[in-house]
Write a structure and sequence with these properties.
The structure holds two protein chains of two kinds. Chain A is built from eight helices and ten strands. By secondary structure, chain A is an alpha/beta fold. A six-stranded mixed beta sheet of chain A has the order 6-7-8-3-9-10, sandwiched between helices. A four-stranded antiparallel beta sheet of chain A has the order 2-1-4-5, with helices on one face. In chain A, strand 7, helix 6 and strand 8 form a beta-alpha-beta unit. Chain B is of the alpha+beta class. Chain B folds into two domains: 185 residues, no CATH class; 98 residues, Alpha-Beta Plaits (2-Layer Sandwich). Chain B has a four-stranded antiparallel beta sheet with strand order 2-3-1-4. In chain B, helix 1 crosses helix 9, helix 7 runs antiparallel to helix 9 and helix 9 runs antiparallel to helix 10. The two termini of chain B are 41 Å apart. The chains are: A alpha/beta, B alpha+beta. The complex binds adenosine-5'-triphosphate and magnesium ion (MG). The site of magnesium ion has 3 residues of chain A, from helix 1.
Chain lengths: 231, 322
């Protein structure tokens, strides 16, 4: 599903943010990216979403080589993905419903399907009663959930999230991780960058650890003890 | 282990659905971009006024010039030649001159206006009656007004006729009405060109005003554009509300410009009426026709679209999420 072959990324005037990275994430898999600040987690997600292009190496999504994807083909690639950010990036001139429906509008769905899908996505994040509110009037956690609803409303095959629980309290963070886990349950490939080791270990999924742009460890961890043994 | 229930991937809508969604999206964006103007009323009104003034000025000038040309066209078929005779010419001599002129095949009509009649006429028409009353002598010469046949009213024949009349005895001065008419036409051509040049410059300024306003809007929405791109929007999808913004600027600015033109022209209509009534003319100041009004608004819409297109072009594709 997602495959990186010997990928190096160097930003202009910087050292390598990622160097000679090899990584495969299978279809339907859920994995966490972790590692110290500056390890290259965000960079990796940006390469997958074609926000940045690799300096060297090859990237495949669904066996399609997107390494040198031309700009005009990027929209179609991104419609197969859902992206969640730390700062939820909602549009503040329209209400929750219109924010969430944006990916469906872009793809040209019929209004009935849009209504149905948006309500389903809002129901999933438990915000059905807030559909006509403006984002600015929602709490941080609610805004984050609107962002997640927008990322999944078009049933993407891949869900990418960069620090989705970055500034939420532990309880809310756990809820949101559970949401991602639910999406994974129905077959979505999920890749989440997160610092929150306690939280991600509880979910017992694959953890990919980056340091200085290299993958220092990548395996499925069944329990906290096991994690400690590895370290 | 529990069997996972895989979600059905959302099928891409078929062509018909996508087309209907496309039309729906255009309509929605049309209203959305109007709402955007409404939500920033001050900036919008400033921009619209700038557009309106820039378009109303050349339009007013153009309509006034049109009116002027209408007047000169009315005079066009006059083409008369006025002969001023020497002051002391006797009745008998005048009769002989008249006869000579009437014999010319190019002359349709000869009218003799005695000096005292010319003076009376002038007193009545000019409003200087009292002033002229005090004069001991009649300052006006006896006059003969010659109307050429229609075929002789144009070009060289008219000049030849004038020259032959000039050579007659007792004729002091010959005045061809055509001369100042032609000068007037030449002047109106210059004015026309000038208005055209002013129009082009002001149209350019409309492009800049709209372009600048849309460019600012794009800068303010940079984040929004990045997010929308991240969700998979094409450049065309993102461009749409900005182009419609330009369309609204053009349409509303054009309507406002037309309003200004009518206000200005109606404002000067009354005074011109008073002016021309002094000249016994049936001239009436023409307002822009329906076709002209429509052209103004269409031109304004085109300028708005072009201005926003110039601002949007390439700028949207340069904004990429980071
Ligand atoms: N746009 C950029 N231009 C230049 N250098 C960059 C850019 N983005 C990231 N970097 C550099 O690349 C390296 C990796 O950055 P990245 O954002 O991927 O780290 P991260 O693992 O996401 O860190 P954090 O946990 O703090 O978010 C860092 O050294 C950073 O300074
Ligand atoms: Mg980061």
């Amino acid at each position: 599903m997602i495959e990186l072959q010997n990928v190096t990324k160097r930003y202009p005037g910087n050292r390598e943010a990622l160097s000679h990275l090899n990584l495969t994430i299978e279809q339907g898999e859920m994995a966490f990216l972790t590692g110290p600040s500056g390890a290259g987690k965000s960079t990796l997600l940006k390469l997958i979403a074609a926000i940045e292009k690799p300096t060297r190496g090859q990237i495949f999504i669904n066996r399609k080589n997107i390494t040198r994807i031309p700009n005009r083909k990027i929209p179609a690639l991104r419609r197969h993905m859902g992206v969640v950010f730390q700062d939820h990036h909602l549009l503040h001139d329209r209400n929750v419903f219109d924010n969430v429906s944006l990916p469906l509008q872009i793809a040209g769905f019929a209004q009935v399907d849009i209504n149905r899908r948006v309500r389903a996505a809002l129901d999933k994040v438990d915000l059905l009663d807030k559909e006509s509110m403006m984002p600015i009037t929602l709490s941080g956690g609610e805004q984050q959930r609107v962002g997640i609803a927008r990322a999944v409303v078009h049933k993407p095959a891949i869900l990418l999230a960069d620090e989705p629980t970055g500034n939420l309290d532990p309880e809310l963070s756990a809820e949101i991780m559970q949401l991602f886990s639910d999406f994974n349950q129905v077959g979505v490939t999920v890749l989440i960058a997160s610092h929150d080791l306690d939280l991600i270990m509880r979910l017992q999924k694959r953890i990919i650890r980056l340091r200085d742009g290299q993958c220092i460890d990548s395996q499925s961890i069944q329990s906290a003890q096991e994690y400690e043994v590895i370290n | 282990m529990a069997k996972t229930r895989h979600q059905q991937p959302l099928k891409r809508p078929n062509l018909k659905t996508r087309f209907r969604a496309y039309v729906r999206d255009h309509l929605r964006v049309l209203l959305f971009s109007l709402g955007k103007l409404y939500r920033t009323p001050f900036a919008s009104i400033m921009t619209l006024l700038m557009i309106a003034v820039a378009l109303a000025l050349p339009t007013c000038l153009y309509v006034l010039l049109n009116n002027l040309q209408n007047v000169t066209n009315q005079w066009d078929d006059a083409g008369q030649i006025t002969l001023f005779l020497d002051s002391g010419t006797s009745e008998k001599q005048i009769k002989s001159v008249k006869q000579q002129i009437a014999n010319n095949e190019n002359v349709e009509q000869v009218v003799y206006v005695p000096a005292d009649i010319a003076l009376n006429d002038f007193k009545q028409r000019s409003g200087f009656g009292d002033l002229l009353e005090g004069l001991p002598d009649n300052p006006l010469p006896p006059t003969i007004v010659v109307t050429p046949v229609n075929s002789a009213k144009k070009g060289n024949t008219l000049y030849e006729l004038r020259n032959s009349l000039q050579k007659l005895a007792h004729v002091d001065q010959v005045q061809l009405d055509m001369q100042w008419l032609q000068r007037l036409q030449a002047i109106s051509k210059i004015i026309q060109r000038t208005i055209f040049a002013i129009g082009v410059m002001l149209a350019l300024s409309v492009l800049l005003v709209v372009g600048n306003s849309i460019r600012l809007d794009i800068e303010n929405r940079r984040d929004e554009i990045e997010v929308t791109k991240l969700i998979g929007a094409t450049d065309r999808f993102i461009r749409r509300p900005f182009l419609y913004g330009g369309l609204w600027f053009g349409l509303l600015g054009g309507v406002l410009a037309l309003l200004l033109v009518f206000i200005v022209l109606l404002g000067i209509r009354q005074p011109t009426q008073e002016l021309v009534s002094l000249y016994n003319s049936n001239f009436k100041l023409m307002l822009p026709s329906f076709k002209q009004s429509l052209s103004l608004i269409l031109a304004s819409i085109l300028l708005g679209l072009l201005g926003s297109w110039l601002a949007v072009n390439r700028r949207i594709s340069k904004i990429q999420p980071s």
